[in-house]
């Protein structure tokens, strides 16, 4: 996954401090996913770790994500250590969304509002009896793979390792990226297999909520098509003369 272009915007805003004006530099770049763009506000976002928001309801713990979801056309928000990835709906236009995203980021970071609510605590499970192979997989992901993927506004999260298969979840710009499967198979899988012989393959884990919604949509479309076909089928019978 490679950055395609990069632009730099300089936004100034008056602040009620001893310094009359302060400049906020927001850098953005396109990603391999045409529906996602990476925004770098030039200041810490999460500091460490990442958070993925695919629905407006899930943003209750993050004022920043909640504000971004108020923008018409925004379909997803991904927060990284020092960047924000915004994913738009397929039918939305970046020409319309981009200025609103810049304004939202400028207002938020100049106001000094916490990115995540203070009451939120990340649930991190540490398994003292973790298998050595799993530890090696996580170490490679954290040191070699995740930093590269985050450069394009996404992330790769370890889910499980079972029967030689590594299960990973793609986030941010990677969620619906056309090249995510290529990255997973030819990038992540090849590297893990090179260093860890126990790894036979790498598989992507879909978001259960997104998959459920997709299945419901598919079922509704199929039902509608069947109903339409039934209505268009001519009724057989004897014609009266």
TrEMBL record:
<dbReference type="GO" id="GO:0005506">
    <property type="term" value="F:iron ion binding"/>
</dbReference>
<dbReference type="Pfam" id="PF01106">
    <property type="entry name" value="NifU"/>
</dbReference>
<dbReference type="GO" id="GO:0051536">
    <property type="term" value="F:iron-sulfur cluster binding"/>
</dbReference>
<dbReference type="GO" id="GO:0005739">
    <property type="term" value="C:mitochondrion"/>
</dbReference>
<dbReference type="GO" id="GO:0016226">
    <property type="term" value="P:iron-sulfur cluster assembly"/>
</dbReference>
<comment type="similarity">
    <text>Belongs to the NifU family.</text>
</comment>
<feature type="region of interest" description="Disordered">
    <location>
        <begin position="221"/>
        <end position="241"/>
    </location>
</feature>
<feature type="compositionally biased region" description="Polar residues">
    <location>
        <begin position="230"/>
        <end position="241"/>
    </location>
</feature>
<dbReference type="Pfam" id="PF08712">
    <property type="entry name" value="Nfu_N"/>
</dbReference>
<dbReference type="InterPro" id="IPR036498">
    <property type="entry name" value="Nfu/NifU_N_sf"/>
</dbReference>
<dbReference type="InterPro" id="IPR001075">
    <property type="entry name" value="NIF_FeS_clus_asmbl_NifU_C"/>
</dbReference>
<protein>
    <recommendedName>
        <fullName>NFU1 iron-sulfur cluster scaffold homolog, mitochondrial</fullName>
    </recommendedName>
</protein>
<feature type="domain" description="Scaffold protein Nfu/NifU N-terminal">
    <location>
        <begin position="26"/>
        <end position="112"/>
    </location>
</feature>
<dbReference type="InterPro" id="IPR034904">
    <property type="entry name" value="FSCA_dom_sf"/>
</dbReference>
<dbReference type="InterPro" id="IPR035433">
    <property type="entry name" value="NFU1-like"/>
</dbReference>
<dbReference type="InterPro" id="IPR014824">
    <property type="entry name" value="Nfu/NifU_N"/>
</dbReference>
